[in-house]
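Hi D.,

Good news: the full-assembly prediction came through. Inputs first.
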Amino acid sequence: MNKKAILLIGDGISTADLRYASGFSAPDDFIFMQFGDRKICSVSALEYNRAAATVLPGVEVFRSTSSHVETVKDLCGTLGVYEVTVPGFFPVGIAEKLKLAGIKVIVSEERLYPEREFKHPDEVAKIITSLRAAEAGCRRAIEVLQESDISADRSIIWKGKPLTSEILRTEVDCTMLRLGMLPTDTICAGGLQAAQPHNTGSGVLPADYPIVLDIFPRSAATGYWGDLTRTVVKGTPSDFMRRAYDAVLEAREFAKSCIKSGAIPAEIHRCAENILARHGFHTGHNDQGDFGFFHGLGHGVGLEIHEWPRLNPRTTTPLQPGVVATDEPGLYYPDHGGIRLEDMIYLRPDGTAETLTKIEDFFTIQ
Amino acid sequence: MNKKAILLIGDGISTADLRYASGFSAPDDFIFMQFGDRKICSVSALEYNRAAATVLPGVEVFRSTSSHVETVKDLCGTLGVYEVTVPGFFPVGIAEKLKLAGIKVIVSEERLYPEREFKHPDEVAKIITSLRAAEAGCRRAIEVLQESDISADRSIIWKGKPLTSEILRTEVDCTMLRLGMLPTDTICAGGLQAAQPHNTGSGVLPADYPIVLDIFPRSAATGYWGDLTRTVVKGTPSDFMRRAYDAVLEAREFAKSCIKSGAIPAEIHRCAENILARHGFHTGHNDQGDFGFFHGLGHGVGLEIHEWPRLNPRTTTPLQPGVVATDEPGLYYPDHGGIRLEDMIYLRPDGTAETLTKIEDFFTIQ
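Then the structure:
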């Protein structure tokens, strides 16, 4: 008889494996154990009723009455488990205490649920729901920029007041909230802030500079994410940034044409990089920091915003049907700002690619 | 010379110690090491510029060029560190690889930054900002309920349509977004759903039953949380729930009068429990699950929504100046619904308590 169990502890919000395996998530950590065919959640009294009503079919719900360590020890005793396999992110403090209690703890070098990379149709539908909300948020941003004017000092003015990143973000996020999404660090970064890919943006948005709108809502109900980036200019962009935009758009579309079953992510990344370089946009590092295209081309999306596969120069495992990933080349120059354009792609069961993103590309907005 | 370092790895969003010590947070994990007077963040190229502009004074920012494990090994080599102290939640996978590389890994049984429990005035100000946003969200919910009508079948109707938990939550959350908050699982639970303290609520809200509004926004800018709960009824509550409300309010106010420097949380919790019992509201467990007052009276709030101190029956360490904590007794009955009333309290440097929450208590709304 198999005496080894998978053990997860977390909240199911930041611990996607836990939500995937149990169907449950909670504000506080809980325990999940998979032992042969048995799947067990052990949750606090506070969560018991809700967990029992929420878990996936076949998952048993127990009530934890002591610490996580004691509860796991009890579960192992009851089930006859003497060895647990845990993920690399498992808390070392609990792992050490389990070892002291005589339970062997194996840290898996592999993903425990590698099948998460390959989405079922119902998962794709959930991702699309979140992506559509991102698109609605993006449309709201475009609408606000269309309604805006440009002041004499080339600031963007909306409803008579300077339009800030914060105001624009709120408009995007409220639109998505109404669609059942949890907005999460929506990026509305303009001017030179957009040269930092993770800068969410702050202060008055300048005209004539690209504004990166990177919108990644998570469904409150399902936990699945959507991910979308558009870059727009209110006013007149510099020739440099106009050429950068065209190069990024070409790189994204060419990469998209390469994404199919059997394709190697590292090669697709390099294709995108080469297209940018051919347009004269090189990647490097100087006193001001990094410039050019210095992040991966894309990443899988599901119960995590960044999950497998990684479309970067180091990934040599061929893509397979079921993958949902982003295609998002970018160019960033501390003296000019930044451009990023991101679509989501799904590899259908037949291995062909489907672009899930439906919203058009915009650049200049009048 | 001290050759031991504190080592943290995380995103600074879910890893509050990291944000507290470095001043930085990011969507992806980064490394923080504290070695004597030196504090070092090692972040990806993607985050370097933003980190350098954001970290606390005195924190050095390095650029990670390899895996977390390799980066930590390099840092230890450069600094001459052979032993790292990590928190219990540190990832076991990284801990094991560091051990294999000859670095001693000590899992701290203690908090690494216990001073987080005692807030500086600027931290209290940040918490108050988030609490005020929660109050604004709560006022919006009250406003919506005031504008609502009750249908013949005793549903709540707003703007001609059934008012759902989801719609009410969106109104609360949009109000808070406009104030720079990240809304997080705002609870608007009515009817029997409110008998589950963490049920966020779904579907049409019924009249005559208490609606629990538990609102805990996090400032996008500072990372500090606010926490507020009010329970309201549109229509006419049952006598049972009216008595439960009065009992919970009395318990909260009495507990509040006990919260001061030197007080024992376990004793305050028991006082609240005794008041509820004296009103005939007992705590227990039956076939339907738990009923009565089955969670802790309160918890510290700061860079985590639930942090030290825990005001529950197990905490016997006296409260000290600087604590910011919630006081939130509740009563939950699967046949009746739930009541929870939550204020936030600050223990001033002189040891006296200040109620940070300013919004009044409401029960029935016409």
